[in-house]
Design a protein that fits this description.
Shape: globular
CATH superfamily: Glycoside hydrolase/deacetylase
Helix content: 40-55%
Largest sheet: 7 strands, parallel
Order of helices and strands: EHEHEHHEHHHEHEHHHEH
Oligomer: single chain
CATH class: Alpha Beta
CATH topology: TIM Barrel
Distance between the termini: 26 Å
CATH architecture: Alpha-Beta Barrel
């Protein structure tokens, strides 16, 4: 459901329905790009260190108005599908595990990588995207690594402001303040900087990743999430994939991604959006409305 101009802004329910992990695999790309073309995913972000980025670049050339950001990547979590940093290895040694790939977990990155190494890699990923002709509408963080320490979050804000690309940041709701405190972030202080910089913010985030959930329960939960949305700007993160050998080999959680793709592509999902008065929204629109 797109914007209803007659509705006052304060009463509008806007949802950035965001797909993570573009560029990870052909299966992931196919599902996500189909959902974007169908108008059920409004935004997505790209993992620049991964092997299927060029497929997304070619699609973006044909869809210049698509809302595509960068899923800034500092971890390589899967067993058999791995990736390395974009930056020269000698500049980011703390981001690399003993096998030569990025660390599998957020905790390992925090333990081994310096803020300077993180900044070097973030800039390398952004520069790669720009050289390929991408025009990122936003920046977010794979596995939430950039929100995992105050130092990493500071680098995230710094790089985003330097490149003038909106980062995924939030209004200081009680839920967000608790999440930040659990990661050692003084979000009250950080939010002052966010406001001073004129960065657009999201009112709520729902990552909603429930591994092993039966299809019908998954479907009911997503529908209920849409129905209970209140006025404001919200983000729902989804992970999509196709039911094929590549998807099966990539992750043991392939069924969840296949189910999520199927749920979004059902006519019933668009009906729930329509009936609930929820309009799909993008980071491009958010920057125009809330940014400086």
């Amino acid at each position: 459901m797109r914007r209803q101009e007659q509705q006052p802004t304060a009463e509008r329910k806007r949802l950035i329905l965001h797909a993570d992990d573009l560029g990870l695999s052909h299966s992931k790309n196919r599902a996500t790009l189909k959902a974007m073309e169908a108008g059920v995913v409004s935004s997505a972000s790209i993992m620049m260190p991964c092997g299927w980025v060029m497929e997304v670049v070619e699609w973006a050339k044909r869809h210049p108005n698509a809302d595509l950001g960068l899923h800034l990547t500092l971890t390589s979590e899967w067993s058999t599908l791995r990736w390395r940093p974009v930056a020269p290895v000698d500049k980011v040694k703390g981001l690399i595990d003993p096998t030569g790939y990025m660390w599998r977990s957020v905790e390992e990155v925090v333990r081994h990588a310096s803020p300077q190494e993180v900044e070097t890699e973030l800039r390398a990923q952004i520069e790669m995207a720009l050289k390929l002709g991408l025009k990122p509408t936003h920046l977010d963080s794979h596995m939430g690594t950039l929100y995992a320490s105050p130092q990493f979050f500071e680098v995230f804000l710094k790089v985003a402001m330097d490149y003038k690309i909106p980062p995924m940041v939030f209004s200081p709701t009680p839920e967000i303040m608790l999440m930040a405190a659990a990661r050692g972030l003084d979000y009250k202080q950080a939010y002052q900087r966010i406001q001073q910089a004129g960065l657009p913010t999201i009112d709520s985030l729902n990552p909603q990743y429930e591994i092993g959930e039966p299809y019908e329960k998954h479907r009911a939960r997503l529908h209920q999430y849409i129905r209970q949305l209140k006025p404001g700007v919200h983000e729902l993160i989804v992970h999509l994939g196709e039911d094929d050998p590549e998807g099966h080999a990539t992750t043991p959680h392939w069924q969840y991604r296949v189910d999520e793709f199927r749920i979004l592509m059902e006519p019933a999902f668009k009906e729930v959006l329509q009936q609930s008065g929820v309009e799909l929204y993008t980071y491009r629109e958010l920057a125009k409305e809330r940014g400086k």
